[in-house]
From TrEMBL:
It comes from the Bacteria. It comes from Saccharopolyspora taberi. Pfam families: SMI1_KNR4 (PF09346). Residues 27-163 form the Knr4/Smi1-like domain. Transmembrane segments: none annotated. InterPro entries: Knr4/Smi1-like_dom, Knr4/Smi1-like_sf. This is Knr4/Smi1-like domain-containing protein. Residues 169-192 are annotated as: Disordered. Residues 181-192 have a biased composition (Basic and acidic residues).
Length: 192
C-alpha cells in the first residue's frame, strides 16, 4: 500500500474503533512544501510529502495518540513550529550539533536535519532524520529531557504507517507498543 492508502485505512479504523481519536484529526491544510523545504534547508522525502498531503495533524494542544507509543501527528505547519522551537532552544549548538554525521546515528543535541512529525505534548517527538547516509529518511524518537535520540524506530514514514496499520488491523505490536481502545473511544498504546 502507498502512504495515502495506509493513512486512509488508519483513519477509517480509528473512526470505526476509536472515534474520539479520529475526531481529533484534521484534514490537510494547503501549505507550500517548497516554502517549508526552503526554510528547513532540506528536501523532504517522498513518503513524508505524501503523508502531509493527506494528514492535517490536530489543533494546537489537542492530543490524538495515533503513533506509538504516544505521539500525535503534526501538520506541516505544526512541524515547522516545532522545528523553529528547537532552533531557538538549541541555538548555541545549532550550527555544530552534538550528533554523528550519518542518518540514524546517535545525537545528544537537536540536529537541524531532524524534521518533527509528531509530538507527545511534553516535548518528546518523532523526527524524520534527513542527514545523509543509507538511513536517510528514517524515523527517530527524540527525548527532550534526556536530550538524545536512540536507534531508528522505522526506516521511513511509510514503514511507520505500515507498522501502525498492521498493528491496528492484526493486533500485532508496533515497536514495543500494543494498541488498545479506551472506554471513551480513544486509541491508547500500551508499552510492553
Amino acid at each position: 500500500m502507498d502512504v495515502t492508502e495506509l493513512w486512509t485505512n488508519i483513519v477509517v479504523w480509528l473512526r470505526n474503533h476509536a472515534p474520539v481519536t479520529a475526531a481529533a484529526l484534521k484534514p490537510p491544510a494547503p501549505l507550500d512544501l517548497a516554502e517549508l523545504e526552503s526554510e528547513l534547508d532540506v528536501q523532504l522525502p517522498a513518503d513524508l510529502r505524501e503523508w502531509w498531503s493527506c494528514c492535517g495533524g490536530t489543533d494546537t494542544g489537542v492530543l490524538a495518540d495515533v503513533l506509538p507509543p504516544f505521539y500525535t501527528p503534526y501538520s506541516p505547519r505544526g512541524a515547522l513550529e516545532a522545528w523553529r522551537g528547537h532552533r531557538e532552544l538549541w541555538a548555541a549548538k545549532w550550527e555544530r550539533p552534538a550528533c554523528a554525521y550519518y542518518a540514524g546515528s546517535a545525537g545528544s543535541s537537536f540536529h537541524p536535519a531532524w524534521i518533527p512529525i509528531a509530538g507527545d505534548g511534553f516535548s518528546d517527538e518523532l523526527v524524520v532524520d534527513l542527514r545523509p547516509g543509507p538511513l536517510h529518511g528514517c524515523v527517530l524518537e527524540w527525548e527532550q529531557e534526556a536530550g538524545h535520540v536512540d536507534r531508528p524506530e522505522w526506516r521511513g514514514v511509510s514503514d511507520m504507517l505500515a507498522a501502525v496499520h498492521r498493528s491496528l488491523t492484526e493486533g500485532s505490536p508496533a515497536g514495543h507498543s500494543h494498541p488498545t481502545v479506551t472506554e471513551d473511544g480513544r486509541l491508547d498504546w500500551q508499552i510492553r
